Predict the 3D structure of the following.
Amino acid sequence: MKNKKIKNIIYASLGGILEFYDFILFVFFLDIFIKIFFPPQDENFLKFSSYLLFGIAYLIRPLGAIFIGHFGDKIGRKKIFYISMLLMILPNFVIAFLPSYENIGIIAPIILFSMRILQGLAVGAEVSGSWIFVSEFVKGRQIPLALGFISMTLTFGLLLGGLTVIVLKNTFNEEELELYAWRIPFVISAIFGFLALFLRKHLDETPIFEKIKKNNQILKFPLKQALKTHKTSMLICFLMSVVLTSGIATLMILPKYFYKILPLNEIEILYIQNWAIFILMIGSLVQGILAKFYGSYKICIIFSLIFMLSSLLLSLHNDYFVLFYFITCFSQGIVTFAPVFMTQIFKSELKFSGLSFAYNISYAILSFVTPFIVDLFFDTYLKFYFIFVGCSAISCVLILKYFLAKDARNIF
């Protein structure tokens, strides 16, 4: 039985790895996509196209959450989990072999946008689905440990993508990258995805959903019920999404400004960025382990305070900048508590719909505005953004402890 749980947890993590791997590839190759898949236009048009191409997958996520989440509560976690993975893989395969604008004209950007939309629909349920799936196989304080592992594996996808970019940049010149080499990681992603899809065929349905089905507790419109009865739960999802999207700030956006502070070239900055991703991985797992023994409330508050303090020191931009950056990333392992809290504050019969909708709406909005906040605040006020992130996590603990989850001490 224990081995079956471990197998289900590992297989559930594969989709998140794939999603985050694709995320970082799109960040690094976006300029190449604009060059080869779009018609030559003025710079403002191309810049707008790049933002739209990257952001469309995130803006479409809530629709995927509504549709796929609904069926996750109606027909089961396992079946939807398989479908969402398939919808992530097929676009990667198409993108890997998509002809350029020069070859097929306007059809190229149309197909590319279509594939990003399809990925966005799938991602709308993939991550939240993996949280729910795993949390329904474990009990009590095993939950933060299991979800700490899931948080670590999601970040591992970023690390894989970052290392892939370093290898490509060290192996190919700019012309080779633009001509064909950028396609290599997308081919790898498609192959990995089909392997993960095969493994997911062997997943078991969660015991909680089996119980819902057996007791005839399946709701006709679970999201409608969640919107009526779980407003405070959705506030928790928003606040913890603030914590989750702060990873975009530290891991993806801050490194763009390192050249202002550190005498480093592009490859050296990439190495620091990948070390930061690895450190966040370890921080997520360590905090999940500590939460198992000391409780999620206590560990979340402690590391939220460390996160705020280290970000204040980071904003000094002194000789210890890299050290404070790494400490900030380690303490940012509080992302572990996002799924821990979210999965325990919805009734089981509407959990997939309610959690997926609230998380994806919040994430879509926050991931869109976070880059602008960092760009605007970097020089002087960025520390206040990080303080807001830490306060959001602590606020969730207080709301849960005193209002929402008074009976969940065995978990939190």
Observations:
- The CA atoms of residues 309 and 387 lie 8 Å apart.
